[in-house]
Amino acid sequence: MESTLPLAIQPLLDAYLHGLEPFHSHFSGIYVTGSIALGAFEEQASDIDVMALTQGEWSSLELNQLKTLHRHLIQAFPFGKRLEVWYTPVRYLGVMRTGRQENPVDPYPVVHDGIFSAASSGGLNAVTWWIIKHHGLRLLGPHRSELPLDVTWKDVLSTMQFNLDVYFARQTKRPYIYWGDVAVEFGVTNLCRIFTTIEEGEIISKSESLVRWRDRLPSRWQPLLDEAWRLRHHLRQPSCYPHRWQRMRETLAFIQYGRERGRNALERFSHVK
Fold first, then answer.
1. Number of C-beta neighbours around residue 115 at 10 A
2. CA separation (Å) from 30 to 116, 142, 191, 202?
3. The pTM is what?
4. How high is the pLDDT of residue 101?
């Protein structure tokens, strides 16, 4: 296990790897990605994102045992519910699905929000592969430098464009979701991360993106970024908005602003890194 992993999560990952020992023949490599790989783990908020590259087929018995393992980790460890795992067949290494093109992918096991699904998908995007290629922390298998990962910065920018043109367009067709805390925090922080990726050519954590852009965006958006920070770090403090409908309206307006800013930035900064 990599020595740079946060100490707070090492007992969980030790137990996880120990629990996987009966299934080692299924794995060609297991890597930590996300905020931990970026050196930005936050004990109060960050998920523990893991890409497990697998080989062979899972039997029904093995899937039940895997589900039982994750249930045990959730019950036994404070961070257990935040362990997010994609059990991705190694043949999909580097495959990127944006929804614009059909890349047939068979479903595979995924653990998300503490729920084990034996047949799902996820994690197949340029950002995940970019982080693994450049920052991924090895839990099992070859070092990241030995993985045949072919992902470019142009691929990352294509993912940003998809997020702006497709993902957020879909979300705004359901404006009521921004009545809730989770959607507000996710939408605001991810748009700030998109600004950083496109305009500054790097991938950073959600919290760092809020800090970086709070005083750089037009002053209108400062209360909304402060609200996203509160939702992420100080949920018990009072909201920056007297009414939820005001916060929802500003979130939707920020998404519109962010999509326009992002598209304009893509035209200016679509360089290959």
1. 12
2. 18, 9, 29, 24
3. 0.92
4. 52
Q: How far is CA 102 from CA 53, 88, 168, 171, 261, in A?
A: 21, 18, 20, 21, 28
What angle is formed at CA 206 by the lines to CA 126 and CA 243, rounded to 5 degrees?
125
136 within 8 A of 32, measured Cβ to Cβ: yes
What sign for the dihedral angle of Cα 216, 220, 223, 228?
A: negative
Rounded CA gap, 221 and 224, in Å?
Answer: 5
Write down the pLDDT at residue 271: 53
